[in-house]
Amino acid sequence: MGQWMPFVEPDVWWTVQESLNAPARITNRTGSTARKHIGSGLFLCGICEKPVKAHSQRYRC
Ligand SMILES: [Zn+2]
Question: pLDDT tier at 1 (50, 70, 90 boundaries)?
Fold first, then answer.
């Protein structure tokens, strides 16, 4: 547990984790629900402000 005020209550956090880990969410070829490239399509480029996508270990617009 962190030593700071939680953003969400623990029961909400665990409910979300269970949803994220649900096998029904698997849409990739690896068969995994592990979070990767969480900012892809969400983070915006600091220069052109377009959404970035994951490329290898980095994000690119
Ligand atoms: Zn850009």
Answer: confident
Place of tokens 């983070």: 43
**Tokens (6 digits) for 47:** 């220069």
CA of 35 to the centre of ligand 1 (A): 24
Centre of ligand 1 to C-alpha 45, Å, is 5
Which tens digits make up the pLDDT trace of 40-58? 999 999 999 999 999 988 9
- Inter-residue contact 40 to 52 (CB < 8 Å): yes
- The full set of domain ranges for the chain reads 37-61
